[in-house]
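Memo to structure team: turn this sequence into structure tokens by end of day. - J.P.
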Amino acid sequence: MNVAVVGVTGMVGREMIKVMEECKLPVDNFIPVASARSKGKAITFRGKEWTCVTLDEALSMKPDLALFSAGGDVSKEWAPKFADIDTMVIDNSSAWRMEPNIKLIVPEINANRLQPEDRIIANPNCSTIQLVLALHPLHKTFGVRRVIVSTYQSVTGTGKNAVDQMEAERRGEDARMVYPYRIDQNCIPHCDVFTDNGYTKEEMKLTRETKKILGDDAVLVSATAVRVPVVGGHSESVNIEFNTEVKPEEAREVLRFARGINVLDDPANNTYPMPYYSRGKDDVFVGRIRSDISNPKALNMWIVADNLRKGAATNAVQIARYCLENNLLKA
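Reply from structure team:
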């Protein structure tokens, strides 16, 4: 199988390499794809060095699978070109997520919607993935009416330059400013750009993508996204209102048996999810499950995941593996 990773030198691209190695995705020919300035750069995959090529060169190599993580503009231009030669494209940008004819997939929830004709598949936003993995089993069991979510998002979600800014600030050095303000010792309630309704694009992604993945436009979602000086992963404070009264122990029981979820919820022993401990792991961690004392039909919970792993690279590779195992990816 010929597999291309587009944006291979970025943080998510490098994480995709790790995940493919760990899960032993069958790859006969690895095609690392980067910008023209990185052409010829050596990338190590499974102990062997492979040379970076441009998108034009990769297209001529006719990969069976292309994992895209190079930004929306690149995906909009190039994903259809690869799809036209029957390459299956799994795209990590926001370019295709809300297109009606493009599937937005979290394998544990809706991979069964995929069909052989799906040549471009959208990987959801990192914050959305961890939210819907917890919401989905609860929605199936109890019926979710409304979700209020506040995110605490790692600088790794912005990319390497944001990590560099934070580390320079911690050293007391002049930093190349990726954010409009310093991020070290600070929280910035501003992820992506602001839209006309006062919400950022990141916040609207959480609203729209959640409905599409759950397949239920009746679920109400309102979000506030905050950037925090953390490297390990994204955290979310979530208030969920159900159609009926749900006890915390009932929600814990459902989540304990949910795929991809790890319940860490023992406050008496200081056991709860934290981004520091999620780093490098593929599970979505849920804890602090408790009744909303202001609403008998609502629960509060805390959801954490490594945004580069399940929030991006792992989810994309899981989609690829599902397609391969179900004869949707022909190689």
